[in-house]
Amino acid sequence: MIAQGGNGVDDLNNVASEVARMAGGEPNAPDARNLSDRDIADIAAYYDSLPKARTAPARYDETSAPALVRVGDPLRNIAPCIACHGGTDHKLGAPWLEGMPKEYLVVQLKDFKGGMRRNDSHGQMRNMTRQMSSTEIEQVADFYARRSTAGEGR
Ligand code: HEC
């Protein structure tokens, strides 16, 4: 079941672990190397304070969503994003993606694909993104990033 907005702690842990990874000096994130633990905690708290999942999560029958989000691609072993990130199901540890900045999403997906980000415990994200083209990565990132504004009642 999906508890709307109820996974703040999950999200926070996720952002904190990701920021900590970058601070560790991964080659693609040189700017984060000088962050103190305090900075890291502040950044994580900031991201956690951002609105999440204000819109209903993407659904399988929502035709404006990219096919990979709704149904995945079984022939390439790509499970639908909504099977873990909210929609049809929400797996423990899989953060809400709605409203995350597009640039952030693209970088994370490319890092999973290239194996620079390895903190997905069963390699789920790495295995899937390896099968995805750059265009597909752009499309799903764009879709999730745009969903925040859709739900803000403007
Ligand atoms: C089988 C379950 C599963 C599926 C399917 C899945 N993900 Fe994930 N994803 C996860 C988990 C678990 C994490 C958290 C990994 C970690 O601990 O860092 C994650 C992390 C992410 C992140 C990093 C978020 C952050 O806060 O840094 C992005 C971006 C992402 N997934 C995008 C996608 C997209 C786009 C799809 C569909 C193409 C997708 N995922 C499909 C399980 C899944």
In short:
This protein is mainly alpha-helical. It has helices at residues 8-23, 37-49, 67-70, 102-114, 124-130, 134-150.
Describe what this molecule looks like in 3D.
The protein is mainly alpha-helical. It has one domain: Cytochrome c-like domain (Cytochrome Bc1 Complex, Chain D, domain 2, Orthogonal Bundle). It is 45% helix and 0% strand. The radius of gyration is 15 Å and the shape is globular. The relative contact order is 0.16. Residues 1-7 and 149-154 have low confidence and may be disordered.
List the topology elements.
Blueprint: H1 8-23, H2 37-49, H3 67-70, H4 102-114, H5 124-130, H6 134-150
The protein binds heme C.
User: What is the CATH first-level class name?
Assistant: Mainly Alpha
What is the CATH architecture descriptor?
Orthogonal Bundle
Structural category is: mainly alpha
SSE pattern, N- to C-terminal = HHHHHH
Q: Count the strands?
A: 0
Reported by name, the CATH topology is Cytochrome Bc1 Complex, Chain D, domain 2
Work out the radius of gyration. 15 Å
Share of residues in strands: under 5%
The percent of residues in helical segments reads 40-55%
* Domain unit count: 1
Shape: globular
- The low-confidence parts are 1-7, 149-154
Bound molecules: heme C
Tell me the span between the first and last alpha carbons.
Answer: 28 Å
